[in-house]
Design a protein that fits this description.
It comes from Ampelomyces quisqualis (Powdery mildew agent). It holds the Pfam family Urb2. By secondary structure, this protein is mainly α. 65% of the residues lie in helices and 0% in strands. It is globular, with a radius of gyration of 42 Å.
């Protein structure tokens, strides 16, 4: 690089010739820029100067700066190969910005305009951002971008003017520029122009503003292209940010779209565009980039973008919403209503979409078509294109939010427009509703339509039923395309039903607009489709029995190649909503009829083979019965239920008559119509019986129930019926009938019991003990045997209190228990029956013969041990809890005998596991002492001789040793503990859990022996124990893991017996920590030794000398084996092993005070909590540091508070605030006499509020809220009026749109904390609020607004933690949150006496003794009217979930009741409401009167 020679002061070199020759003298662009900057006397660091108006730029030669501006513009607009290089150079853009600031606007604006700056900007964006940025990685260092750009090029040498070029022009190196850095400098240069063009005319010259506007003003077509390329650049850079990560200021630069929007707003609108919206240019160029950018921003979470970027992210999303609304939706809406008005005069307008919107969606439609073609070809869809399908839901949601639908009337008027938008969007994804499709609908289109329907459902907007029916008929795969293979889209059908299920239940009417080929009964058609898929296709997988499990979403179901449809999807999202719709339509019998038709069709002979291959048809799933139970009684009258039961009972009787009249062949029987109807009735009757839960209805149905009981009794006893029907269904129905009839009739009728119940019990015993096929005619499978067993359980349970039935109960029960213990049932049925027996019928075991009962229980335990591993624990614990919780003493004795027998069965480990799991659920006091000691002896023998389950055996012994067992072997022989330890060491069973249980066993044993050491038996035990102990501790060998567990137990329990000296014990521990090169396989672990030292600390306090020596040795050992100072100062968090090692030392350092000061220990704890530790280790570290901080002086604690609150390192804040929370809990609730300390005390709460307003981390939020609650509730002396107002202020901020970006996943928890803290202030610090209760109003309004879901953009912005990035996944608060807000309002309106007693102590000295609660209500009532007004307004602009509203309204009634203390206040509030708000208030007042009775005062000043 040629050096720059400074010119002589006396003879300065002329600058103009040097400027004119710079292109000839230098070939490298960077060198040219450097020379130009030097010539016009820019400082060397001009590129890094932030303020372009600084004095360093005042000495620039302005006359030559204008020439430099022309030179820069010539470089940027050059169309040759040097043009892209210049436009990709960051330095030249920085120089342009600098020159624009130097020159006056009157000199710079004409040059910028003549050079067509907008064209330069467009070319720059095209050159650098139209291509893929995947190859550009962010720079790893902070070097200058121009240096990175030309890293591989050499500076050119200066040559003489006119000489031939010795160096060829450098190749364009635009590809080497960092895209983000280039974008920033381009934006800064453009901002220097727009800053003048948009300046305030009151403070700036309008002439300069207009001159700069001329620079930016261009045709609408070019402005749209610039906006498009700018949005594309931002979208790509944001995606690059998510991939590589970048600084927060770079994210802020990307998200600010104000500069490019100035160009768009200053565009020259086409003369043909009367609306001035440039809809065509915007949709052609900018629509798809805008939608893609909006989708990309939804994936930018606050932790990634930075706390400061959250607000800008929201603003950018709002800007994009306004762009789409202003230039697409608003013009399309105006055109739609204008065209609709014209068509309305011609009669009934045909259903139509928004034509202008459909035309404008052409670019998006092209992208979606491309995605569909790629899917059909099996190609991978790029992420940028795949996101286009989500734009459908976004556009529909935006159209709803942007509509002027503030009032119900306005929302009703907007429905045609919303429907037109939906139709146009459906056409955009290739799903026209005007004609049947010719091709199979793509999966992307299905997902888009489903999300659009979900948006409509979330906004509670219904559209024309004809539109939905056409969507179902044309695009759900039920009919079209006719010439191609179809696939039914069940999730799309489910979305349709969720939006409006009435289209399937409304009675068919003649409609000329409906296609003739559409079926009249859509429900019957849909149910037939389900049946066809169940029998003919691959079928549906089993329903999820647990209704709490998450549903598979549409994307996961539809985006697979050939998904196996989930039965739960069909039942829960299709059939169940249809049942509810029939119920709402008061036509539940219509569903019952259609269900019956499907059951009858399923029993066709053609479906017999399919039914045999399937476990259960979908129409017989128990999920249907569960759904029916919730609606049955409230939808049907008693007469309707009686007729329904009678009809199905008659069908069963008809089938019996047909079967009794002739003996048809097997095939002919299954073809008979009565057979199919009877089989369907066999399914419906038990469903109806389970749905009847009212005692009054049961009494009214007594004749029908008796008839059914008799009919089914004959059915299970006659082999002719059982040959063609499922016996399990018949026994199920009999169980239900007996449950209904027993309380009303059968319990008091011995005749009925003998004539009906006894024969059935005999038949049930035969079926329970029968094999799978008793004879050629009777089929008894495992499910049938299980249900027959259940019938016997139920019958025995009811007959056990009937005199004279003891023998029958005993015989039946013996049969059942025998078969339950045998392998008569399959695994699934056996598990279910054992659980049912343990939960409901275990008390029946007391009726067994005492001699037989232990054997029966043992056989049951033996059978349980053969079950799967995941079932054994649950079943065995259930059996133990049931017997010990409900059984008698004899049953307890039989059970303990069975457990003892099970433990004595040799090497049967599975049986041992069952017995031990059962023992762990037994309280020792529930067993006799002899039985406990016998079991303890068995376990001792097993542990010392046979391989057993060590952890469970030790845990059972520990539990049994909770009470004395003086005659047990472990309490009489001091060598047993050591023998068990030796066997554990031999088997290498030395896990941490095993060692803990061994230590506990030794402790509990010594706890029963040492207090009675003077007795002969105890002396004998301790003598043998001492011998074994001396053998263990003699010599210099290291202690084993099991030996250390015994020694730790001795130290903790020996008290004054001195079995082991502390000095000797410490020596053993020191020896274990010393590395002498010996084999450490059988030596106690490092962790156990440190834990032993920690346990020693209290024992050493009595011996200062020993404590001092031990502390010194530990300090030396830690210094030699760990560098904790280096760990504290390290930048990286380290590995899990390092963090775990330090965590073990942390407790030792704190216990023995091995730290220089408390600040050092806090720093170590903070670093430790930031490491990769598990939650339990972190809790232990917090407990340890709290124990150290508690005894400190108040001044030291306040110093630590300042240290922990002044943390600039964001990753360290969660750990620091967690320690701060515990430190605040240790502060004394006493004001300091020192003024400085008192000031620090009072500053804690405001400081916490300041930190809370800035944090976006969930851990920090909870820690700070805990600290605030602790001060409010327990440290009243640390509060003041100012601090209470600070708390109110930060809580209000957290409920406003400016709230910090807390995680939305914790929205319900955040709202809970806000309500709890607000209520706490009212309970404890209401006196500090005084007469300024109005400061609560904004907080209460904010919390109330959080419960609503806004229906439009005009409704106001929710806090960031309640905002959803996806329209189809809104964040809703729960009914529990509504109840918490109600509780807060209740505390406000009806305060307890304790919260206001201090305020009203002075009233006792007055002559008038007023009720303080009444006085508090009086003061509160004056500021509640704005809250009621807000509720009315929120009702118009948002919606409450029904469950949330139910919980909220009791609190609102409290507010209304308190506010109604002053009639004039209510009247004034009513007068200030708008018309729509008055309508809402009338409804609220009417509902209030219906709950609390009619009031004398009226709702408003006028009659309503």
């Amino acid at each position: 690089m040629a050096p720059i020679s400074p010119a002589s002061a006396k003879h300065p070199a002329p600058t103009r010739p040097r400027l004119q020759s710079v292109n000839q003298d230098f070939s490298d662009l960077n060198e040219q820029i450097r020379q130009v900057a030097h010539i016009i006397r820019l400082p060397d660091d001009w590129a890094s100067v932030k303020d372009q108006k600084t004095s360093a730029l005042q000495h620039v030669v302005r006359a030559r700066a204008e020439w430099v501006l022309r030179w820069i513009l010539d470089k940027l607009k050059d169309d040759s190969s040097t043009g892209p290089e210049a436009r990709a150079n960051t330095t030249i853009w920085q120089l342009l910005e600098c020159v624009i600031h130097i020159l006056p606007v009157s000199r710079s604006a004409p040059h910028l305009r003549d050079a067509s700056f907008t064209t330069i900007l467009e070319n720059t964006l095209v050159d650098n951002y139209e291509k893929d940025l995947a190859g550009h990685e962010p720079p790893s260092t902070g070097s200058d971008s121009s240096e990175m750009l030309h890293d591989g090029t050499k500076p050119s040498r200066k040559r003489k003017r006119g000489s031939p070029g010795t160096s060829s022009p450098t190749k364009p190196t635009a590809g080497l520029a960092d895209p983000a850095s280039l974008f920033c400098v381009i934006k800064n240069a453009l901002q220097s122009i727009t800053g003048v063009a948009t300046a305030n005319t009151k403070t700036h010259d309008t002439t300069q503003t207009e001159l700069m506007k001329m620079v930016l003003r261009t045709e609408s077509a070019q402005a749209s292209r610039i906006l498009r390329f700018w949005l594309v650049a931002v979208q790509k850079l944001v995606a690059r940010t998510l991939t590589y990560g970048t600084a927060a200021q770079d994210v802020n630069t990307l998200l600010d779209l104000s500069v490019v929007l100035e160009i768009w707003d200053l565009r020259i609108v086409d003369s043909a565009d009367h609306a001035g919206s440039s809809t065509e240019d915007f949709s052609n160029e900018c629509l798809v980039p805008t939608l893609q950018l909006a989708e990309s921003l939804r994936h930018v979470h606050p932790p990634q973008a930075g706390v400061q970027s959250t607000k800008l992210l929201d603003i950018t999303m709002q800007v994009l919403d306004k762009l789409v609304s202003r230039h697409l939706l608003v013009p399309s809406r105006a055109a739609f209503f204008a065209a609709r008005h014209d068509e309305a005069e011609k009669g009934n307008p045909v259903r139509r979409g928004a034509s202008m919107l459909s035309n404008s969606l052409g670019p998006l439609q092209a992208v979606l078509l491309q995605v569909a073609q790629m899917e059909d070809a099996g190609e991978d869809v790029p992420t940028q294109l795949a996101s286009a399908s989500k734009a459908i839901a976004y556009l529909l949601d935006l159209a709803i939010r942007a509509s002027p639908s503030k009032t119900p009337k306005a929302r009703l008027a907007e429905r045609p427009w919303i429907q037109a938008v939906f139709i146009s969007l459906a056409e955009c994804v290739g799903c026209s509703l005007e004609a049947p499709p010719e091709f199979v609908i793509s999966r992307v289109a299905v997902v888009a339509l489903e999300s659009a329907l979900e948006v409509l459902q979330l906004h509670k907007i219904t559209i024309d039923s004809t539109t939905l029916k056409d969507l179902f008929w044309y695009h759900c795969g039920v009919k079209y395309p006719e010439s191609r293979k179809k696939e039914v889209h069940w999730s799309l059908i489910a979305a349709l039903i969720k939006l409006d299920a009435s289209i399937f239940v409304t009675e068919p009417r003649s409609n000329p607009n409906v296609a003739k080929e559409q079926p009249k009964d859509l429900t019957e058609f849909l149910f037939s489709l389900i049946s066809k898929a169940d029998f003919d296709g691959e079928g549906f997988v089993d329903a999820q029995e647990d209704s709490d499990q998450d549903m598979p979403d549409a994307d996961s179901v539809l985006l697979k190649a050939k998904p196996a449809e989930c039965r739960y999807l069909i039942l829960a999202r299709i059939v169940t909503p249809i049942i509810s719709a029939f119920s709402k339509n008061r036509n539940l019998l219509g569903f019952m009829r259609r269900w019956d038709d499907q059951l009858v069709n399923s029993y066709k002979y053609t479906n017999r083979k399919a039914m045999r291959e399937k476990t259960q048809p979908i129409w017989e799933d128990r999920f249907l019965t569960s759904s029916l139970m919730e609606l049955f009684e409230q939808s049907l009258t008693q007469d309707q239920i009686a007729i329904l039961l009678q009809d199905h009972a008659s069908r069963v009787e008809v089938w019996g008559a047909v079967l009794a009249a002739e003996e048809p062949e097997d095939v002919k029987v299954q073809k008979l119509a009565p057979y199919k109807k009877a089989c369907a009735s066999a399914v419906i009757i038990p469903a109806v019986l389970q749905s009847i839960r009212s005692d009054e209805i049961v009494v009214g149905l007594k004749p029908q129930l008796h008839s059914l009981f008799v009919s089914y009794t004959e059915r299970v006893q006659d082999d002719r019926y059982t040959s063609y029907t499922r016996l399990g269904l018949s026994w199920t129905t009999l169980c239900l009938l007996m449950a209904k009839l027993w309380p009303i009739d059968m319990h008091a009728s011995l005749k009925l019991q003998q004539s009906l119940l006894y024969p059935l019990m005999e038949q049930a015993q035969k079926d329970v003990s029968a094999s799978c096929k008793v004879s050629a005619g009777r089929q008894v499978d495992s499910p049938a045997r299980a249900v027959a067993m259940l019938f016997l359980f139920d019958a025995c349970d009811r007959l056990q209190t009937v005199p004279g039935s003891e023998e029958r109960v005993r015989d039946s029960l013996q049969q059942v228990v025998t078969n339950l213990s045998a392998s008569q049932l399959d695994a699934q049925e056996h598990r279910a029956m054992v659980e049912i027996f343990c939960a409901n019928f275990v008390q029946l075991l007391s009726h067994l013969d005492p001699k037989v009962s232990p054997d029966s229980i043992y056989a049951m335990l033996k059978r349980i041990s053969s079950l799967d591993d995941d079932v054994i624990d649950h079943v065995s614990s259930s059996l133990s809890e049931a017997i010990l919780g409900q059984g008698s003493y004899s049953l307890h004795s039989a059970y303990s005998s069975a457990l003892s027998e099970a433990l004595g069965q040799g090497d049967d480990l599975r049986l041992h596991h069952v017995a031990l799991q059962s023992l762990l659920n037994v309280q020792p006091s529930e067993l006799s002492r002899e039985r406990r000691e016998a079991i303890l002896d068995q376990l001792s023998t097993l542990l010392t001789t046979n391989p057993v389950i060590d952890i469970e055996s030790l845990a059972a012994m520990v539990q049994l040793m909770e009470v004395p067992n003086a005659s047990a072997k472990i309490s009489t022989d001091g060598a047993v503990i050591f023998d068990i330890a030796a066997q554990l060491q031999k088997r290498q069973s030395m896990s941490r859990s095993v060692l803990q249980q061994l230590q506990l066993l030794c402790q509990k044993t010594l706890a029963h022996i040492i207090p009675y050491q003077s007795q002969a038996q105890s002396r004998a035990f301790l003598g043998e124990f001492q011998k074994k102990l001396n053998t263990l501790t003699q010599g210099n060998k290291k202690i084993s893991a099991t030996g250390l567990a015994i020694l730790r137990a001795i130290i903790l329990e020996q008290k004054d017996s001195q079995l082991l000296s502390v000095k000797h014990y410490i020596g053993l521990l020191k020896h274990c920590l010393m590395d002498d090169g010996a084999d450490t396989t059988d030596v106690a672990s490092f962790e156990d030794v440190l834990e032993a030292f920690n346990e020693l600390s209290p024992a050493l306090l009595g011996d200062p000398t020993q404590l001092k020596a031990t502390t010194a040795w530990l300090r030396t050992w830690i210094n030699e084996n760990a560098d904790l100072n280096a760990y504290i100062t390290s930048i990286q968090s380290g590995s899990f092993e390092v963090a775990e090692y330090v965590a073990r030392l942390h407790k030792l350092v704190a216990k023995y005070k091995l730290y220089p000061d408390a600040n050092w220990l806090v720093a170590l704890t903070t670093k430790l909590l930031r490491g990769p530790l598990d939650a339990e280790s972190k809790r232990s570290a917090l407990i340890t540091i709290t124990g150290v901080l508690t005894p400190l002086e108040t001044a030291d604690k306040l110093g630590l508070v300042e240290l922990l609150t002044d943390v600039e390192d964001v990753p360290a804040q969660p750990a620091s605030y967690s320690i701060l929370r515990d430190l605040i809990a240790t502060l004394p609730d006493k004001p300091s006499n020192d003024t400085a300390l008192r000031s620090k005390q009072l500053s804690i709460l405001p400081r916490l509020c300041t930190l809370l307003a800035q944090t976006s981390d969930a851990i920090c939020f909870n820690a700070l809220m805990d600290g605030i609650d602790t001060i409010l509730n327990h440290k009243a002396s640390l509060t003041s009026q100012h601090s209470i107002e600070c708390v109110f202020g930060v809580l209000t901020k957290l409920t406003s749109r400016t709230s910090p970006a807390l995680p939305a996943a914790n929205a319900s928890h955040i709202f809970t904390r806000l309500c709890e803290t607000s209520r706490l202030m009212l309970l404890v610090h209401r006196n500090k609020v005084g007469g300024r209760s109005h400061i609560l109003l904004t907080l209460l309004q904010g919390l109330l607004f959080c419960l609503f879901m806004p229906t439009s953009a005009r409704s106001g912005a929710l806090p960031s933690w309640l905002r959803s990035n996806t329209p189809t996944e809104p964040i809703c608060l729960t009914p529990t949150n509504g109840a918490q807000y109600t509780r807060l309002l209740g505390t406000l309106c009806n305060p307890p006496q304790s919260s206001i007693s201090k305020t009203h102590q002075h009233s006792r000295k007055s002559k008038d003794l007023n009720d303080p609660v009444k006085a508090a209500r009086e003061r509160t009532s004056h500021f509640l009217y704005p809250l009621l007004t807000s509720f009315c307004r929120f009702q118009l602009t948002g919606r409450l979930q029904p469950a949330v509203r139910t919980k909220l309204m009791p609190g609102l009634w409290e507010v209304v009741g308190t506010a109604s203390l002053h009639r004039e206040g209510l009247d004034a509030m009513f007068a200030g409401l708008s018309r729509s708000e008055k309508d809402v208030w009338r409804s609220v007042w009417g509902e209030y009167e219906s709950v609390h009775g009619r009031k004398e005062r009226f709702v408003g000043g006028e009659d309503i």
